[in-house]
Each structure stands twice: as C-alpha cells, then as structure tokens.
Write a structure and sequence with these properties.
globular; about 260 residues; DUF4058; alpha+beta; single chain; DUF4058 domain-containing protein; 6-stranded mixed sheet; two-stranded antiparallel ribbon
C-alpha cells in the first residue's frame, strides 16, 4: 500500500510515529546507497548518544491552577481563629534524565577510512531549544569547518530550522546539500506538503559523479513495509496541524484515495 500523498506524508510526522520513520529512513538510505558506492566507499550507520536532563516538555499537561487553588485555599483559612491546617501533599511530576540516541550516516573511503560525506535526518530534539539542538549544532559547525560534505534532511514542520542565510522563503520541509569545496555556499531544496520531494545529490570526491537520492521511492517503501496505512487515523488532522487551505487539499487527496 502506497502513501496517498505525492511527497511527504504529513501524518508520518506524528510524535508516536516519527522515531520509527527516522530509523527506517536512515536504514533505507544506507541500503539504497551501499551497492552504488562499491567498491570505493562504504556507508555506515553511526549513533549520537546524549542525556537530556530536566526537559520541561515532560511537564506539559500539569495545570498551574492546581498549585494556585491549593495556595488560595490555605490563605482563606488563615483567618479562622483556632483552626490549624495540616498541609496535604500534592501529586507532581519530576523531569527525569532521558537517554537519546540519534542515528546518522557516514560515507567513508575504503582505503583511507576518511569520512567523505555525512547524512543527517533531523529529529524533534534537534529543532527544540535544549541539549539535543546544542549537540547537533556543535557537530554541524565542526563538519562545516572541515573537508567533509554534509547532507541535512529536515522532514519536520515543527520546531526551529537550522541556521542558514539567504532569501529562501518559508517551506514546510528542507534538504540542504553542502559541498565542502564550495562553502559557505550550499544548495537548499525547499518544498511543501503538496509538492513531490525533489531528488538531491550526495557529493563524493570532487572528481567523481554524485549519486542521487529519491526519497519519494524510499518513503513509499517504508509506508508499505511498515503498514502505516493501518496505523494512521486519517479521519483526524495531522500533528502538527496544517493551514486551512492545506488541510482542504489533504482532505481532497484522502477522498480521492478512498475512491481509487
């Protein structure tokens, strides 16, 4: 079963699905590139591990009014002569450490073991203020100051985009290709939910032809193999939400898909 959308399926961005999509897409890109890179290069799946402490997102959903009502109750009874109140405990949530693992790809020369290209797929933590973004930005700057090419894939509408300069407008999704020899210039492929995902190059050594990646094919395979048609409730709007015009378009796409 193929995805009903011509490009990026916005329902795949749902927080409960994205970790699996990220994992599958990293693997799919590696499997797609591996035979094309032989015999001069290999592609390796690497992991970045860090600990998130005191994430305020863990406290979302705890109403402030709970604290306020408790305090006001104590004040209102302080005027009662001869009545001693015993403070009652409240149930709270504590931010707990969380170990985060993010996979990325390295293309290495077989003889030299030199890292020629790094391919990153951004995660929600990379686009939120916190240690996840700091870790990624630090690595990104290190790559951009080196001789290694960088391919950065952003298939998430929510969060803060990575730093770049230029009149590129606002897009739902972005793919950035940075050739080490042309920095600070880079190629940006911006597209929206209604668009087909553009094919993009994977740079290697300057004298060698670039490989092309078609995410449309890979995401369709992931959607099919992962049975996402059975896991997604298309009767509800996607998370994060779309604009009203885009949501009308989504409903038309889904209605046409049902008819076919």
């Amino acid at each position: 079963m193929l995805s009903p959308f011509p490009g990026m399926n916005p329902y795949l961005e749902h927080p409960s699905l994205w970790a699996g999509i990220h994992h599958r897409l990293i693997t799919a890109i590696a499997d797609d590139l591996a035979p094309k890179l032989r015999p001069r290069y290999i592609v390796a799946i690497e992991e970045r591990v860090y600990e998130v402490n005191g994430d305020t997102n863990l406290l979302v959903g705890v109403p402030d009014v709970l604290v306020q009502s408790s305090l006001s109750l104590g004040r209102s009874n302080q005027s009662d002569v001869g009545v001693a109140l015993i403070p009652q405990p409240m149930e709270i949530l504590l931010p707990i450490p969380e170990i985060m693992t993010e996979a990325y790809l390295e293309i290495r020369g077989v003889k030299t073991e030199e890292v020629v290209t790094i391919i990153e797929i951004l995660s929600p933590k990379n686009k939120q203020v916190g240690i996840g973004r700091l870790q990624y930005e630090t690595k990104r700057l290190k790559i951009l100051g080196s001789g290694t090419h960088l391919v950065e894939i952003d298939l998430l509408r929510q969060g803060n985009s990575m730093a770049m300069v230029g009149n590129f407008g606002q897009n739902h999704y972005r793919i950035m290709v940075s050739h080490s020899e042309t920095r600070p210039k880079a190629q940006l492929y911006g597209f929206n939910v209604r668009d087909k995902i553009p094919e993009f190059p994977v740079p290697l050594i300057a004298s060698e032809p670039e490989l092309m990646i078609d995410l449309n094919i890979l995401l369709d395979e992931i959607y099919d193999h992962g049975s996402y048609d059975l896991r997604i409730d298309y009767s509800r709007p996607p998370i994060p939400p779309l604009s009203e015009p885009d949501m009308i378009w989504v409903k038309e796409i889904l209605n046409n898909s049902e008819k076919n």
